[in-house]
Design goal:
The chain is an alpha/beta fold. The chain has one domain: Rossmann fold (3-Layer(aba) Sandwich). The chain contains nine helices and eight strands. It has an eight-stranded mixed β-sheet with strand order 1-2-4-3-5-6-7-8, sandwiched between helices. β7, α8 and β8 form a beta-alpha-beta unit. The protein starts with 15 loop residues before the first strand and ends with a helix.
Length: 277
C-alpha cells in the first residue's frame, strides 16, 4: 500500500563506535549496526517507516553523538537482511495485519539481540520509529516486556483502513489543508468506502495495554497521517492515565525527522534523556 517516509539523513561529529550485528527473527537472518557512544543515557532500536529501507545510519549517528546507544538494521528483505519484503513496489500489502505483526517481531528480536552485546539493565531501553512504525512499535512493545519507552515520529493513531482513506483523500496534495477543513476530513475518514478491504490494525489496541511512557512528534501540515484525530485519540488514552505525550510542530508536514527541521529530533533526544528506570 501507500504510506512512505524516507529515512532522515544527518551527519554527526562526536565520538562513538560501531559494530555490525546479525540476529534471527521469524525464520530470517537480519543484519544491522550498533552505534555505541562513550557514555549512554538510553538504548534505542530504530524501526522503519514503509518502503525498502536500509539501516538508518544518519539518524543513528545523530542519536549516538548525543549519548544514546542505537541499533539500526536493514528491513526484512532489504540490504543485507534476509526474508521477504512486502510493499506496493513488489505488489504486496505492507500494512496487512500479518506483515505489521511480522515487522513487530523483527523489532522485538532486534531488541533482544542487544542483550547479548550490551548491559541493558541500568539504562532505559526503547523503540524509536517513523511513520508506519506507528503501528509496528506498539505491537513490538506489547510483545517484549524489555521495552521501557517508545518514540514515534508522525506515527498515526488511526487504524490502517482509516489511514488509507485519509491518504487517498489528500492524494499527495501539498496544499490540501488550504482547501479542506478538519470537519471534511473526519467525514471522509468515517464514511469513505475502503478500496482495499483487509483486517485493520489499530495502534490503540496495544497502547491501551502498555504502561510505559511514549512520545509522539507531529507536523500540523501532515497529508499522510491525520494529525488532529491522532492527537484526539492520544488525549483519550492520557485521560486513562497512560503516560503518552505529544508535541505538535505547526509548520511541519509528515517528515518530522529531517536535518532541515531539527527541532523534533532535538526534542525527542531531550525527552529520552529525562527517562529513568
Amino acid at each position: 500500500m501507500l504510506y512512505a517516509q524516507n529515512a532522515p539523513d544527518f551527519t554527526a561529529q562526536q565520538r562513538f563506535t560501531t559494530e555490525n550485528i546479525k540476529f534471527k527473527s521469524a525464520g530470517a537472518e537480519l543484519e544491522g549496526t550498533l552505534f555505541k557512544p562513550g557514555h549512554s543515557n538510553a538504548i534505542v532500536v530504530l524501526v522503519h517507516g514503509s518502503g525498502q529501507e536500509n539501516r538508518m545510519v544518519g539518524v543513528a549517528s545523530l542519536l549516538a553523538s548525543n549519548g544514546i546507544t542505537v541499533f539500526t538494521y536493514d528491513k526484512r528483505g532489504v540490504g543485507k537482511s534476509g526474508g521477504v519484503y512486502a510493499g506496493p513496489e513488489v505488489g504486496t500489502n505492507n500494512i496487512d495485519a500479518a506483515n505489521l505483526d511480522l515487522l513487530a517481531s523483527d523489532a522485538s528480536a532486534a531488541l533482544n539481540a542487544l542483550s547479548v552485546h550490551l548491559p541493558t539493565k541500568h539504562v532505559p531501553l526503547g523503540l524509536l520509529g517513523f511513520s508506519q512504525a506507528g503501528w509496528v512499535i506498539p505491537l513490538a512493545a506489547k510483545k517484549n516486556a524489555k521495552v521501557n519507552f517508545i518514540v514515534l515520529f508522525s506515527g498515526p493513531m488511526v487504524n490502517t483502513l482509516e489511514q488509507l482513506r485519509f491518504q487517498f483523500y489528500t492524494a499527495g496534495n501539498a496544499k490540501f489543508w488550504e482547501m479542506h477543513t478538519e470537519a471534511e476530513v473526519r467525514e471522509h475518514i468515517n464514511n469513505d468506502p475502503d478500496r482495499y478491504p483487509f483486517k485493520a490494525t489499530d495502534p490503540r489496541d496495544a497502547l491501551s495495554k502498555l504502561s510505559i511512557p511514549g512520545l509522539w512528534l507531529f507536523g500540523a501540515k501532515d497529508i499522510q497521517a491525520p494529525v488532529s484525530l491522532s492527537i484526539e485519540r492520544l488525549r483519550v488514552l492520557q485521560a486513562k492515565n497512560k503516560y503518552y505525550e505529544f508535541k505538535l510542530f505547526p509548520e511541519l508536514g509528515h517528515n518530522t525527522a529531517s536535518a532541515e527541521s531539527p527541532e523534533p529530533v532535538n526534542f525527542a533526544i531531550q525527552w529520552i534523556k529525562t527517562l529513568k528506570i
